[in-house]
Specification:
The protein is α+β, with helices and mostly antiparallel strands. It is built from eight helices and 26 strands. Among the domains are: 4-115, no CATH class; 177-275. The two termini are 47 Å apart.
Length: 471
């Protein structure tokens, strides 16, 4: 038995000027006939009603009496007849109001059921793995793809980043002052003696060395008294050990004969001022480590800047980004005393990018001859890995490792058109007949009882998603 909605669909689907409807004997009433009549009027089609029994015949007869001057063709033994509505006007007034309401309600329900639904179809295809390497150059001078040469248009991007970073100094050194003072030089010979500047002495019995600050001339002895003269000396190293007082005797390192010559500290003289302490200084590794750390930070920022400037479809090969230091300034040199070392650094970053769409076009043109007839690359799962990228002034060159799936060609628009208006069972039967489809799934909204569900007649309300079966 046909439902009201199936009969309405038949009126809508009829391509001719007239549509023939068999009126069911059961579960059908005059209001439903009125709904069919109004739909036929709206579609400007002649409605031919064919009774299937006595009850449906009476319903059709009552309908033909429903409006003054209107004729509905009845396909039965009796001819269609005209009935004047004037005599029954009063009796039919109330039912007609109800009929009109139900017609509007039925028409709205029909529109909602047949024009609001949407369908989602998921088709699973059997993939064939495909891997191929091709030579690619992203050239900033190129305006279009050259598949023969493997050239795609490229875009030059540059970025400048500045940064400052401080780290602890880790070197150590001992610093201080050298001891200095006046000592007495003695000459016990018959001739005067000059001790030149730089003459070396050491404290008797030690390795503590000193040097004479300037030339000193010591007179010869007079009688039994040796000649003497005071002069200044300075320790060769820093430290308090070099501070010496009265009674300290020195030996000449330069090999002067003793006891003819001597040097010592007498009362009122001293060698003092020597000091030492351990301090923190800048080690060579401090500068190099700080430079590497700050470079890593700026490289990250430079990549962020370049990526932020790129479009949604722009591909950036991060390994190929060229970085160069354009300015660096350390707060302290190696060996300088400080607890902290600060570096100010400026870097420039350069890269040539390309669009993902251009790469896909190049792949399609380059390897299309390798794909079997009736098959195509599955774009949703094509990956490109740039191998050994090299950046020059105008080009980014690399080997592109293309990994994809080859799948059967699917005409999604034809499938949409073939599915329109089908009920779930018919739609599933059709989808199961598609030989190139390994599996399918169809969802129809709203989720009504199956007898009321239909695939939308509007193909814009049907979406088809292709996916591949995991191997």
């Amino acid at each position: 038995m046909s439902s009201l909605f199936e009969l309405l669909e038949r009126i809508l689907a009829e391509e001719g000027d007239a549509v023939e409807i068999e009126v069911p004997e059961e579960n059908f009433n005059l209001l439903m006939l009125r709904t069919l009549q109004e739909k036929a009027k709206k579609e400007k089609k002649k409605l031919v009603l064919k009774p299937t029994g006595s009850r449906s015949k009476n319903l059709i007869q009552t309908l033909t009496e429903g409006e003054e001057g209107e004729v509905v063709e009845v396909k039965a033994k009796k001819k269609a007849r005209k009935i004047n509505f004037g005599a029954l006007r009063k009796l039919a007034f109330v039912p007609l109001i109800l009929v009109g309401f139900l017609i509007l309600f039925g028409g709205g329900a029909y529109w909602a059921l047949y024009y609001l639904p949407r369908a989602e179809v998921i088709l699973t295809l059997n993939p064939i793995p495909f891997v191929k390497e091709i030579s690619v150059s992203a050239d900033i001078a190129a305006e279009e793809i050259d598949a023969e040469k493997g050239i795609i248009p490229g875009t030059l991007h540059t970025a400048t980043e500045e940064g400052e970073k401080t780290a602890d100094a880790t070197g150590t050194a001992t610093v201080g002052e050298k001891a200095s003072g006046t000592v007495t030089f003695e000459n016990c010979t018959d001739t005067s003696k000059t001790f030149s500047a730089g003459t070396e002495l050491k404290v008797e019995g030690t390795d503590l060395k000193y040097k004479v600050d300037s030339d000193v001339n010591v007179p010869e002895k007079v009688g039994p008294t040796c000649g003497t003269k005071g002069s200044s000396i300075t320790a060769t190293s820093i430290g308090t050990d070099y501070n010496k007082g009265e009674g300290t005797n020195f030996d000449f390192i330069s090999g002067l004969n003793e006891p003819s010559y001597d040097a010592y500290v007498i009362s009122g003289q001293s060698v003092s001022g020597g000091s030492s302490e351990e301090v923190t200084i800048v080690a060579a590794g401090d500068q190099s480590n700080l430079l590497e750390d700050l470079k890593k930070d700026l490289v990250k920022e430079g990549k962020k800047t370049i990526i932020g400037e790129g479009g949604l479809d722009e591909v950036i090969v991060e390994r190929a980004i060229k970085s160069e230091v354009t300015k660096k300034t350390f707060s302290h040199a190696v060996g300088e005393q400080t607890d902290k070392l600060t570096l100010n650094l400026t870097m420039k970053f350069t890269i040539i990018t390309y669009s993902g769409a251009s790469m896909q076009d190049l792949i399609s043109q380059t390897i299309s001859t390798l794909i079997p007839e009736g098959y195509t690359l599955f774009p949703g799962e094509t990956s490109v890995e740039p191998l050994d990228p090299k950046l020059s002034k105008n080009k980014l060159s690399f080997q592109a490792k293309v990994s994809s799936d080859v799948v059967p060609e699917i005409d999604t628009e034809k499938i949409k058109n073939d599915l329109t208006g089908r009920n779930p069972a018919s739609a599933q039967e059709y989808l199961s007949s598609l030989g190139e489809v390994n599996a399918y799934e169809i969802k129809i909204w709203p989720n009504l009882p199956e007898s009321f569900q239909r695939v939308p007649r509007n193909t814009d309300r049907i979406t088809i998603t292709l996916k591949t079966e995991e191997l």
